[in-house]
Write a structure and sequence with these properties.
With 355 residues, the chain is an alpha/beta fold. It has helices spanning 13-23, 39-46, 58-68, 77-83, 95-104, 112-117, 135-153, 159-175, 221-224, 244-247, 249-256, 284-294, 312-320, and strands spanning 29-32, 50-55, 215-218, 232-235, 299-305, 324-333, 345-354. Bound molecules: S-adenosylmethionine (SAM).
């Protein structure tokens, strides 16, 4: 995964996996209940676990499909057949490479992204234009979104192929976004990577005949907990007030392929339908209770951070209501926006809760 995501475990995935392997044997079922970029799920699959990946966000769903649900290179049978009438395919390239080449050569259009998220546009609800993307990149994104939506509506893509293309578009857009860390704000001037032309790349797929062992879900952990049975549940909740749905609104819009009202200076989509209780101190306790009590699982491993809304002592007290707890801690390099004045290191906790 090439993008910076608040709370991503990309830098400490080995520590998390090593702890999981102490607690759960290979071949066991592990739920990654708030999977985000999918880095933990993906590694669990490589280590021979059966994985249940879930998150609230649609982009996360697409990432998990890409990580867990391919056993061979996608063939894009219907789509290749369709585009071969309009576009000269390269016989030395795979169907997937041909589809990505086709998308990279699509005609740019002045659509929703150009209008709402580039300085050339005139947003529907704001006097001032926004600067998330170079206008040429915004038009390219519009062209690619438009054609992927057509392919989808015309049933030229399987569900997994659709997720793969959405994932590839998200990764490429993220590469050229004019942001300091999250999509909460854009930078005043286009800088660095934001000046390069957007290019979709084929994902490096992990291919294995184990896809029936894995399940990908999208929903509120609290609500779906009662449908999940697993040997161990890894929970990596938000630990700050910053709502993911607000901070990654543009990725969610790409993932959904829609054109919501873009509100205010930052152009947020209406995001309350993906509000997380874990970003509100007073709501964490009830949500943890709903998850731990309702899931058919006795072992929980929970990531938390020194930066958390709750102090580690308060979090420990909360969890001790549900069973025995054991805590490991280690120092970790912090996720920071470019302009943040926070210190570079923080303590991360891995809390084992045995129900
Ligand atoms: C700290 S991040 C997880 C990072 C992930 N482990 C990774 O390495 O990329 C927290 C995630 O929890 C998700 N989330 C927040 N509240 C949730 C809820 N109630 N149910 C399911 N997912 C939730 C967010 O969308 C976000 O992706």
């Amino acid at each position: 995964m090439g993008y910076r995501y608040i709370g991503s475990k990309v830098k400490i995935v080995d520590k998390v996996i090593n702890k999981i392997s102490e607690l759960c044997m290979e071949g066991g079922t592990v739920c990654d209940l708030m999977s985000g970029t999918g880095v933990v799920s993906s590694e669990l699959r490589k280590r021979e676990y059966r994985v249940i990946a879930n998150d609230l966000m649609t982009y996360s769903y697409h990432h998990s499909i890409v990580n867990l649900k391919f056993s061979k290179q996608p063939e894009f049978n219907k789509l290749i057949n369709y585009i071969s009438n309009k576009y000269e395919l390269d016989s030395n390239k795979s169907p997937y490479e041909n589809v990505i080449n086709f998308l990279n050569n699509i005609k740019p259009i002045q659509g929703y992204f150009w209008k709402e998220f580039s300085v050339e546009g005139t947003p529907s609800n704001m006097g001032k234009s926004r600067n998330y993307f170079h206008p040429e990149n915004a038009k390219k994104i519009d062209g690619i979104r438009y054609i992927i939506n057509i392919f989808w509506k015309e049933e030229l893509l399987s569900n997994y192929e659709y997720s793969l293309l959405q994932h590839d578009l998200i990764m490429a857009s993220n590469d050229v976004a004019n942001i300091a860390g999250t999509y909460g704000h854009y930078m005043a001037k286009l800088n660095g990577r934001a000046l390069s032309a957007i290019r979709l790349e084929c994902s490096n797929l992990f291919l294995k005949e184990d896809i029936d062992n894995h399940i990908v879900m999208q929903g509120y952990a609290e609500k779906i907990a009662s449908n999940i049975q697993c040997d161990l549940c890894y929970i990596d909740p938000p630990y700050m007030k910053r709502q993911y749905a607000a901070n990654y609104h543009i990725l969610e819009t790409l993932a959904r392929g829609d054109e919501p009202e873009a509100i205010g200076i930052s152009g947020l989509r209406p995001w309350r339908d993906q509000y997380s209780n874990f970003c509100t101190k007073t709501k964490i306790r009830q949500s943890m209770k709903d998850i731990v009590e309702n899931m058919n699982c006795n072992n929980f491993l929970i990531s938390y951070s020194e930066d958390g809304l709750l102090s580690i002592e308060d979090f420990q007290t909360l969890l001790s209501n549900f069973g025995d707890i054991y805590i490991d801690s280690f120092i970790h390099k912090r996720f920071k926006s470019n302009n943040s004045r926070l210190k570079n290191e923080l303590t991360e906790y891995l809390i084992y809760l045995q129900k």
